[in-house]
C-alpha cells in the first residue's frame, strides 16, 4: 500500500503550503523556503518509507505462522504463533521500526481485535495470540499487517507480509457414554452361520435386559443364583453407519451435524468400524469405507473432515433425495449385521417407506427431530416414529437444540 501522511504529516504539509502562498503574496523568500522545506520533508519521508517496504524481495522479512491444534472443534481454542525473521542486516534495521497487526476471520476472532503478546530480538519478532472457533468451516488467518513509518512520524504505510493460513473447524463433539449392550450386542450368530462360543473362549458377565437368552450360561447361573451370559471377547465389532438427514432449515443444521458426529465418534472409540452417510456425504459414486479406531487420530480425522465443508440441501425435496440415495447405499453395501444410527427429521410417506426397509438388513436406531413451532411438524414426527417402530426400528423423539447426551441416553433406553 502507498504511504499516507499522518495527522502530523498533513498538518506539516498544510502549514508548508500555506507558508509558500503567504510568502509569495508578501514577497518573502524566506517564508517560501520554509514552506517548501516542510512540503519536501513530507514528500521525501513518503519516498523513503516506500523504498523500505518489508515485502521487497531484497532485504526481505520472512514470516512463518503455526496454528495448534488445526483442525479444531467448534468452541475450542487454538494457539497461533507468528515468527518474523529478518534475512540480513538491512532487514533487521527495518524490522526494528515495524508495528504488527494480524488479520483473522470473524469466525475465529469473534469480530474483536486480537490481543497478542509480542517478543522482540534484534533479528526476529514472535507474535502469539489465541483464537476460538465459532463456526464449522474453513477460515483464514493473515496475512500479517506491518506498519512502517519515517523517523519524524509524518508518514505511515501499512503492508501485508507473509501468506494466509487456513484453519479447519470440525463440528462440536460431545463425549457420549459408551453404547449399551442392547445396541452393540452381537446379532444372531446362528442365523449368520457362526458357531456359538463355548465357555473356553468366552467370559461371563451379568445378564442385561435385551440379551439373547441363548447366550445364558445355565450351569454358572444356577451355581451363582443369578443369570450370567457369555461375552465373547474375540467376536468382531459390528459395523456402524451413522445416517444424517440434514434439514433444509438452517436452525437445525449445526445441531444435527454435531449430534451425528458425536454418535460416530462414540462408536469409533468403542471399537466399531464407522462411516457417515447422508446430506451429501458419500455422493461421489464410491461407497465410503468403514473407518476403525486402529488407525488412531487418523481415523477420527478422516471421519470428521468431510463435515467441514458439508453444505446442506437447499430444499426439502433435495434433502429427501439425498436421504434416499444414502438408504440405497446402505442396502447395497450392508453385510446383514450392521447397526444404523440415524439422525432424522419428520419424513414424507415415501421417505418413511424407503427408510423402513433398512431393518431387513440392519439394526436401526433413530432419533427424530421435533419442533412444535413448525405447523404440522408434530404430526409428521409422530407418523415417522410410528412407521419406523412398526418396521422394527428403535426410534425416539428429540427436540432441536436438546443436549446430545440426553438424546443419546434416551435412544439407548437410559432415560424415559
Short description, anyone?
It is built from twelve helices and 17 strands.
Number of domain modules: 4
Structural class: alpha/beta
What is the 3D shape? elongated
Query: From the 3D coordinates, which CATH architecture of the largest domain would you assign?
Result: 3-Layer(aba) Sandwich
How large is the share of residues in beta strands? 25-35%
Number of strands: 17
Taking the alpha carbons of the first and last residues, their distance comes to: 64 Å
User: Gyration radius, to the nearest Å?
Assistant: 33 Å
Largest sheet: 6 strands, mixed
Instruction: Could you tell me the CATH topology label of the largest domain.
Output: Rossmann fold
User: Helical percent range?
Assistant: 25-40%
**Topology as H/E string?**
EHHEEEHEHEEEEEHEHEEHEHHEHEHEH
How many distinct helices? 12
Mean pLDDT over all positions:
82
**Which segments are poorly predicted (pLDDT under 50) over 5 or more consecutive residues?**
186-202
Write the layout of secondary structure elements.
Elements: E1 4-5, H1 7-26, H2 29-51, E2 61-68, E3 72-73, E4 77-86, H3 89-95, E5 99-104, H4 106-109, E6 117-121, E7 124-132, E8 137-149, E9 155-161, E10 165-170, H5 181-184, E11 203-206, H6 218-224, E12 228-231, E13 240-244, H7 253-269, E14 274-277, H8 297-308, H9 316-333, E15 338-344, H10 349-356, E16 362-370, H11 377-390, E17 394-399, H12 404-411
Parallel strand pairs: 3-10, 13-14, 13-15, 15-16, 16-17
Antiparallel strand pairs: 1-9, 2-4, 4-7, 5-8, 6-7, 8-9, 8-10, 11-12
Amino acid at each position: 500500500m502507498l504511504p499516507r501522511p499522518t495527522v502530523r504529516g498533513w498538518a506539516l504539509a498544510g502549514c508548508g503550503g500555506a507558508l509558500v502562498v503567504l510568502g509569495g503574496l508578501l514577497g518573502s523568500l524566506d517564508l517560501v523556503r520554509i514552506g517548501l522545506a516542510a512540503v519536501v520533508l513530507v514528500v521525501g519521508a513518503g519516498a523513503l518509507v516506500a523504498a523500505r517496504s518489508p515485502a521487497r524481495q531484497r532485504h526481505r522479512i520472512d514470516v512463518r505462522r503455526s496454528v495448534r491444534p488445526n483442525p479444531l472443534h467448534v468452541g475450542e481454542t487454538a494457539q497461533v504463533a507468528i515468527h518474523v525473521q529478518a534475512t540480513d542486516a538491512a532487514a533487521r534495521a527495518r524490522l526494528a521500526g515495524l508495528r504488527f497487526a494480524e488479520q483473522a476471520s470473524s469466525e475465529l476472532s469473534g469480530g474483536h481485535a486480537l490481543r497478542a503478546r509480542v517478543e522482540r530480538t534484534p533479528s526476529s519478532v514472535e507474535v502469539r495470540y489465541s483464537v476460538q472457533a465459532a463456526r464449522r468451516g474453513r477460515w483464514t488467518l493473515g496475512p500479517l499487517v506491518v506498519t512502517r513509518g519515517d523517523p519524524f512520524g509524518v508518514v505511515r504505510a501499512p503492508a501485508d507480509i507473509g501468506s494466509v493460513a487456513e484453519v479447519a473447524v470440525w463440528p462440536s463433539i460431545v463425549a457420549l457414554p459408551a453404547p449399551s449392550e442392547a445396541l452393540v450386542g452381537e446379532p444372531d450368530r446362528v442365523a449368520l452361520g457362526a458357531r456359538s462360543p463355548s465357555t473356553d473362549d468366552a467370559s461371563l458377565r451379568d445378564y442385561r435386559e435385551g440379551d439373547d437368552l441363548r447366550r445364558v450360561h445355565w450351569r454358572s447361573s444356577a451355581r451363582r443364583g443369578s443369570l450370567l451370559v457369555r461375552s465373547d471377547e474375540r467376536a468382531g465389532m459390528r459395523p456402524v453407519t451413522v445416517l444424517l438427514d440434514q434439514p433444509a432449515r438452517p436452525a437445525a443444521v449445526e445441531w444435527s451435524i454435531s449430534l451425528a458426529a458425536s454418535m460416530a465418534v462414540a462408536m469409533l472409540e468403542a471399537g466399531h468400524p464407522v462411516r457417515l452417510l447422508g446430506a451429501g456425504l458419500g455422493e461421489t459414486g464410491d461407497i465410503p469405507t468403514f473407518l476403525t479406531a486402529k488407525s488412531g487420530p487418523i481415523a477420527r480425522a478422516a471421519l470428521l473432515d468431510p463435515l467441514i465443508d458439508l453444505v446442506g440441501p437447499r430444499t426439502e425435496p433435495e434433502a429427501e433425495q439425498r436421504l434416499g440415495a444414502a438408504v440405497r447405499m446402505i442396502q447395497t453395501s450392508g453385510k446383514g449385521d450392521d447397526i444404523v444410527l440415524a439422525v432424522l427429521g419428520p419424513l414424507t410417506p415415501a421417505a418413511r417407506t424407503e427408510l423402513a426397509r433398512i431393518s431387513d438388513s440392519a439394526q436401526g436406531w433413530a432419533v427424530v427431530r421435533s419442533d412444535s413451532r413448525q405447523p404440522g411438524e408434530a404430526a409428521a414426527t409422530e407418523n415417522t416414529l410410528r412407521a419406523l417402530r412398526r418396521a422394527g426400528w428403535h426410534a425416539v423423539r428429540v427436540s432441536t437444540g436438546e443436549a446430545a447426551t440426553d438424546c443419546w441416553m434416551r435412544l439407548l433406553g437410559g432415560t424415559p
